[in-house]
Amino acid sequence: MSFEIEAEMAYGVSRAILRQALRDFHSNDQGKRTDVAEWIGKDDYLLICESAEIDSDFFAMFFLEMSKRPLIERRSLAENAISALDSFHKEPPT
Description:
Number of strands: 0
Shape: globular
Strand content: under 5%
Distance between the termini: 15 Å
Number of helices: 5
Order of helices and strands: HHHHH
Largest sheet: none
Structural class: mainly alpha
Radius of gyration: 14 Å
């Protein structure tokens, strides 16, 4: 496999992981929310953000702000963030 294909795959998978983290953070399941909160700032979180071309500090601040909101409001914020995430870089970087 070429480096470009691997980078493209990493980009897509990383974006999918971040979308799932947003969904999990507004879940009714406290365990999922806790898992996301504990994941932020760890090495694999930083690697995922880098691969997805997302500023890890900004994304962490977004999660922090979301944590201050009721679950119902988090859902709306997460869905808007997912839409924004999907609107950037429709094509993986080359």
